[in-house]
Each structure stands twice: as C-alpha cells, then as structure tokens.
Amino acid sequence: MTSFAFSAVQFVETCPSWKQAVRLACQPLEKQGLISQAYAQAIIASTEENGPWYILTPGFAMPHARPEEGVLSHETHLSLLRIRGNVMFEGHDAVGLLILLAAGNGADHLAKIQQLTQWLDEEQRLEKLLAVNNEQALLHAIH
Fold first, then answer.
1. Which candidate, 38, 10, 34, places its Cα nearest to that of 24?
2. Radius of gyration of the chain from Cα atoms?
3. Cβ-count burial of 122 within 10 angstroms (0-12 exposed, 13-18 middle, 19+ buried)?
4. Contact, 44 vs 22, CB < 8 A?
5. pLDDT tens-place values along the chain, 143 residues long
6. Which DSSP string corresponds to 90-106?
7. How many other C-beta atoms can be found within 10 angstroms of the C-beta atom of residue 106?
8. CA distances, 81 to each of 27, 68, 87 (Å)
9. Which residues are tagged catalytic?
10. Residues 95 and 56: beta-carbon distance below 8 Å
C-alpha cells in the first residue's frame, strides 16, 4: 500500500459554494506559507472561464493552477477537503472530496497526480473517503 502525505486535511458538514470550497481547501496552505492568496483566485478565474475541468470522477475534484500563479514552495503540497453535504459545480455532479494540488514545479505536477490517482484506486479508497461522515473516520480512511 502506498502511503500518502497531505499538508492539510479538513472535514466540514457543508459548504455554500464551489468558490468557497476552493478557498477553504487553500486556507491551510496559505497559513503554512506554501501558497499565496492569488492561488485560490487563479483557480476560481480558470473555473469561471473553462469550467471545472479538474472534476476527475463523480464526487471527486482536484482543483489546481499553474505553479507560477501562487505556489510559494518548491515542493508539491496537497490539501484534502471532505464536504459531507457535497458542493455543486454548475452543470456537473456534486463533489464531496476536493484535493487541492499545489505543485512546486511542472514536472512534479503530473507525477503527483499519477501517484494520487493510484493511491485513491487502492482498496477502493476514493469510495471510502466519499463515504466518511466525520473527521475521525476521515483521518482513519487516510491512514
């Protein structure tokens, strides 16, 4: 089993909008000095222009922007946000799991997405994460 390290893990009951969900997923990385406030804005602007292209499967999204749009770290960081009540992206399935990707560089970006996808596929981990309904169960499902 592959282990996976998240720089932040959050559980919330509800989130009023997809924009708020993106900002919420970014907050811990901002507080840690890993991304700037511009990063959330870049994701929101890209989504408004191109739609939520980062919804990878029903229920799961991996919002991100280019490293130069606000990533302050040279390493790649992930922020996991589980929204029990799901959040709606206009014209798409409801999303209950966001994993924000803040890639330190372009090469890391694709490698990290591949590693994360593999990790989520193992032991039906994505389904388990989408089924958790409290913070303790979320932490257990990750480890």
1. 10
2. 14
3. exposed
4. yes
5. 445 789 999 999 999 999 999 999 999 999 999 999 999 999 999 999 999 999 998 999 999 999 999 999 999 999 999 999 999 998 888 999 999 999 988 777 788 888 898 999 988 999 999 999 999 999 999 98
6. TTS--EEEEEEEE-SSH
7. 10
8. 11, 23, 11
9. 64
10. no
- Torsion, Cα 22 138 108 62, to 10 degrees, reads -40
Tokens standing for residue 130: 């989408």
The pair of three-digit structure tokens given for residue 134, joined into one six-digit string: 């409290």
Q: How far is CA 137 from the centre of its chain?
A: 18
Euclidean distance between CA atoms 139 and 143, whole angstroms: 6
Dmax over Cα atoms in the chain, in whole Å? 38
Reduced to 3 states, what is the DSSP secondary structure of residue 61?
strand
Contact 98, 19 (CB under 8 A): no
